[in-house]
Amino acid sequence: MAETANIAAIASRITHDIFNVFHWGTHSLNDTNFECVLPTHTASGDNEKKTHPGDVVFHYLDPYLNKRIYLHTDLKSYSKSTLKVGKIRDALRSLAMTVECASVSETWKRKYLLDSKESYEVRGLLFVVNHDNKAPASFTENLKKIATENLPIAKSQILHVLGPEDINNLYAIATDIQLTIQKKKLSSFYRFFYPDLTLWKRHTTDDERIGATIETLLSPYFILRHGAVVDEKDPTQVLEKPGSLVYYSRAGTTTDEFIYLLDSLLRYQLVNAKEQVRIRVVHRDRATDLKSNFERAKEQYCRSWKFQGDRESEIKDITIDSINQISANYSPEEIGWRVK
User: Is residue 266 within 8 Å of 312, Cβ to Cβ?
Assistant: First the structure.
């Protein structure tokens, strides 16, 4: 019972601190097993698996795939001394079997499916916290040592991994968004920007508050589109113009990377006189001269395209800052590694 309570508490905190901000939904069931229906699944000692675990299930609508993504999530917490490659491999092996079974299990559908008529996809998410905050890099290195071809991942199924560095970045971004709203620098009505891509077209309208896909959150940058912030007592007084808030996860060590970013923003038609564009750098080891690199990029970009007058001013008005790095703590006491 204590373990169940800990998992429920951590799932609640993760939802509140991070994923609510990214417009993810969370199923109300926590730490609930479902029956294994595939006889090929075995536990330790080649014994037949009876059940599969589920700590928490997150979900969001993918605007490109036009389906709801369910992330059947395994929560893990470790200290530097307890992290081993074998434990990561065992957790991924267990999660791979869980997702394969969930995709065909009627019990899973009854427990977790929100709308049986809605197109959906079940994926696995391994969410790994380093509760003593001493070994986030060790996890990344250990993860690279695991060959995916040796894991029982079924065809067309996907496993995602959020390690300590990813979680710290997402926690910092979510905290920054919430603080920016509190400071009246960002409207609470924001959405994640999904441009039409060469191979993928958006299936939802641009004003829907769909969640940030996990691919978006782990990309080099993603964009929030937001409305104007107005004075509560005098709605005619605009405190902040509408526009775009760009979260950038690279270090900002070169001018060229910012030229590429500027080119993307203009290609998406996000730079204009009526709106503002603010870039927020997330990288923990960001370059000390990133602002100089960015200013140089704006100069070079305008010069290469021979921008002058209003167009040059619109680009020069784009700002860049870094966000505070705050480490998450999701271990009221260690959950430990559990492979069922």
Answer: no
| Helix or strand (DSSP H, E) at 65 | none
- What are the angstrom distances between the C-alpha of 72 and each of 15, 37, 82, 133, 335? 14, 17, 24, 25, 18
Dihedral over alpha carbons 297, 303, 306, 311 (to 10 degrees): 40
Own/partner long-range contacts of 106-109 (Cβ < 8 Å, ≥24 apart): 106/37, 107/34, 107/35, 107/37, 108/34
Q: What is the pLDDT of residue 340?
A: 40
Q: Which of 266, 325, 320 is nearest to 293 (CA)?
A: 320
d(CA 279, CA 74): 33
- Could you give the CA distance from residue 177 to residue 182 in angstroms, rounded to a whole number? 9
pLDDT of 295-308, one tens digit each? 999 999 999 999 99
Could you read off the pLDDT of 307-319 as tens digits, one per residue?
A: 999 999 999 999 9
Query: Residue 252 has what pLDDT?
Result: 96
Q: Give pLDDT, residue 75.
A: 87
pTM, two decimals, is: 0.90
Please report the pLDDT score of residue 2 as a whole number. Answer: 47
Identify the residue whose tokens are 């029982």. 152
Q: Which parts of the chain sit beneath pLDDT 50? A: 1-2, 332, 334-340
* Residue-level pLDDT at 338: 47
CA separation for the pair 266, 134 (Å, rounded) = 40
Provide the residue type at 71 as one letter.
L
CB 330 within 8 A of CB 14: yes
Q: Which residues of 300-327 are buried (b: 16+ CB within 10 A; e: fewer)?
A: ebbeeeebeeebbebbeebebebbeeee
Beta strand 120-130 with 159-162: parallel, antiparallel or unpaired? parallel
H helices present in 64-205, as ranges: 85-102, 106-112, 136-144, 164-182
- pLDDT of amino acid 39: 83
Count helices and strands in the chain by DSSP H and E runs: 9, 14
**Domain extents in the chain:** 2-168, 184-322
- Read off the DSSP letter of residue 42: B
